[in-house]
Amino acid sequence: MLCKRTYKNQITLPKKIMENFEDVEYFQVRTEGDKIILEPVKLTPAGERPLKKVREKIAALGLKDEDIEEAIAWARKK
Length: 78
Known about the structure:
Layout: H1 15-18, E1 26-32, E2 35-41, H2 52-61, H3 65-77
Antiparallel strand pairs: 1-2
């Protein structure tokens, strides 16, 4: 399949390709030699708290505030 670059450096990806990425809105772009690589990226919406999963994991492990403080103190010694 072909894509054409416009004078504004934009390309339109073929519908048949994008059907595989229906829920993807953003892609990370990089080059590898003479190739352009697009990788799907999932962004966290502003309303979601990025630490929510971390806090859930801490709770699941049964860690207490004291455990966290101890770990931070240990890490800062190095």
